[in-house]
Design brief:
It is built from 3 helices and no strands. The longest helix is centred in the middle third of the chain and has 22 residues. It has one domain. It is mainly alpha-helical. The protein is elongated.
Length: 83
């Protein structure tokens, strides 16, 4: 994780808030997973942080994560790679 943070550090708008963002995101998806299980749903929650892009993260609550994801996916797209 440290090398990941070092790589994207310059792009993050508020690196001090990254841990809190990751905790909020994890809590959100753990709660959603529990709700789906209780409903007997066959749907699942994202397995990777990048997959949460499908659910449009709120940039106000997750500024560092959205910046990293969009920077990362833009970087991969510019190299003709799939995310």
């Amino acid at each position: 994780m440290e090398s990941f943070i070092d790589f994207y550090k310059a792009d993050m708008p508020n690196i001090e808030g990254l841990d809190a963002e990751l905790d909020m995101l994890e809590t959100r998806w753990l709660k959603k997973a529990r709700e789906l299980r209780e409903l007997g749903s066959k749907h699942t929650v994202p397995k990777r942080i990048a997959d949460t892009l499908l659910y449009s993260l709120d940039k106000d609550f997750h500024p560092n994560i959205t910046t990293i994801l969009y920077t990362h996916t833009s970087h991969l797209s510019s190299h003709n790679m799939y995310v």
